TrEMBL record:
Superkingdom: Bacteria
Pfam annotation, one family: LysE
Membrane-spanning residues: 43-66, 73-91, 120-139, 146-167
GO biological process: cysteine export across plasma membrane
GO MF term list: amino acid transmembrane transporter activity
Name recorded for this polypeptide: LysE family translocator
Keyword Membrane: yes
Length: 197
């Protein structure tokens, strides 16, 4: 095992997991609206869905995705539309004072969303393309990536849910709730531009 490759792939897993993206925005919003405990199914669904996507890309699905630009474009459009839907819900809830969602996003819905999440695809394609080894070492290097994204990715995305939960008390003030909800709506909506670029 190459220590430099391990260090580089660990750094990639950490940085790509902890930076803002659709999953982390959903986790922060859910933590804010429902608290950490009720956000756990969403958190675990995101992690499980991402790990399944990583394995699917490693097994060859990424090749189809790379060869057919129309599939990539369709996924980007659907992912951007879902983000706009979330942004609209956040903006509307900040105007009416209601919760952004009636209930937190569940495990299976969060896991399924990874198929539409452009950042998750980019992370998986980049990780498999850059940090796996050829030949007999291929699958051991894939499993090493899966382990790294679990050990480093899960705590990274958990921070976003904790961050949202930490501000839950301030969210009880209607004016603060309106401002925070609209700020999250704008950031979520703006992330559509990054998805479509």
């Amino acid at each position: 095992m190459d220590v430099r490759l391990l260090a580089a792939s660990a750094a990639f897993a950490l940085v790509s997991s902890i930076t803002p993206g659709p999953n982390n925005l959903m986790l922060a919003s859910s933590g804010l609206a429902f608290g950490f405990r009720r956000t756990l199914p969403l958190l675990l669904g995101v992690q499980a869905g991402f790990q399944c996507l990583l394995l699917a890309v490693a097994a060859g699905l990424g090749v189809v995705f790379q060869r057919h630009a129309e599939v990539q474009w369709a996924l980007k459009l659907v992912g951007a539309a879902y983000l706009l839907y979330l942004a609209h819900g956040l903006w509307r809830s900040s105007s009416t004072g209601s919760a952004a969602m009636d209930r937190p996003i569940g495990f299976f819905k969060a896991a399924a969303f990874q198929v539409l999440n452009p950042k998750a695809w980019m992370m998986c394609l980049s990780a498999v393309g850059a940090y796996t080894l050829a030949g007999a070492a291929y699958w051991p290097s894939v499993w090493r990536l899966v382990a790294l994204f679990f050990v480093l990715g899960l705590p990274s995305i958990t921070l976003w849910a904790v961050f949202g939960s930490a501000f839950r008390a301030a969210f009880q003030n209607p004016e603060t709730a309106r401002r925070v909800g609209r700020a999250l709506a704008v950031v979520t909506g703006a992330s559509c531009l990054l998805v479509l670029l």
